[in-house]
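User: Can you help me understand a structure? I only have the sequence.
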Amino acid sequence: MRYSLFDGQRDIILLIARVLLMTLFVLSGWAKLTGFEGTVGYMTSLGAPAPMLAAAVAVIMEFIVGILLILGFYTRPLAFLFALFVLGTGLLGHPFWNMVDPERAANMTQFLKNLSICGGLLVLAVSGPGRFSVDGR
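Assistant: Let's start by predicting it. Here is the structure, written out as tokens:
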């Protein structure tokens, strides 16, 4: 049996990971909710289909699902769903392949950030939330 330095800290590390992964989204979701008209306008500028629906989905995912993931509620399926959402927002919001520098470089970084977050969410979907969660009770 292999022992890891972090085995005894697994649950607290998973809690910290959930908080760190979702803080950006909860804050962004709150801003989208409280400035909903602006969010709809931004979705329109991106060419999102059904911008009002897209804005509502963004608020639900970022704010509500973000809070649920921090709490560790239905963590595995919601983390997987959130990974798909983050991938979709990367494809829609940061299409660097259609741009020229310096916009291309900045959007490529943002797109790759989204992919990195997807990786963290997929790890969370596989590992589960740990003991310090609604699911763990």
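Now, to help you interpret it: The mean pLDDT is 94. The CA atoms of residues 90 and 114 lie 6 Å apart. Let me know which part you'd like to focus on.
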